[in-house]
Amino acid sequence: MILQLLFLLFLLLVLFLLTRKNHNLLFLLLYLWTGSRNFAVNFLSFIFLPGTLIHEVSHWIIATILRVPTGELSIFPKIKDNGEVQAGKLEIAQTDPFRHALIGLAPIFCGLALIYILGKAFLSDLFLTGYFSFNSTRDYFLLSVICYLLFVVTSSMFSSKKDLETIVIAFPVTLLVILMLNYIGVRIFFEASFLEKTAQILTELNGYLIVCSAIDLFILIFFQINISLWQKILKKEIAVIKKN
């Protein structure tokens, strides 16, 4: 199970790098076509709106479960004075580092859960049972929708620096407590059936994340080729946007 977990972390790193690059490339492509920074930002936010909604709502759900008061919830973009774009926002009250860290990590866990559900419902059928026959428009349309949802979820599930600002406290303290408990002989054991089921889920999830990485990589190559072509056609100089 350790190997599956390490591979999961590796795939998350790959997806993080791919999605951040895709955000910038899509903005640059839209800016090349329109010449309007505001239009590019707003259209980019529209494309990722479902993911932004999932991201902020997952913050809200975990904050509610942990009894941390919340304030304004926004899923619409806002350009800050320093040029960064804030895709969404949920105000939360001051709380301890541990609950703040859990709230900050909520979109990642929620995103992984959604990827697993979509993968289990559709991707397993695609590769194992031949659910998609590709003999009708419906199959192509459904597969396109699934790819879009996977792209949007992976692009929006990673937490911002602000979301994770307390993890530098919560993680070392949690690790220290675990090491201390282990040192004094307090250990937690799980049944073999639970570990086996968890390893199976991680293996399946890693397979779905590989598919997500392939989708993001294909989109990255597509954006990069189009940007290169349009730069030559329009002879425009473009700037990179910062996204929070």
UniProtKB/TrEMBL annotation:
The chain crosses the membrane at residues 101-119, 139-159, 166-185, 205-227. Keywords: Membrane, Transmembrane, Transmembrane helix. It comes from the Bacteria. This is Uncharacterized protein. It comes from Candidatus Gottesmanbacteria bacterium RIFCSPHIGHO2_02_FULL_40_13.
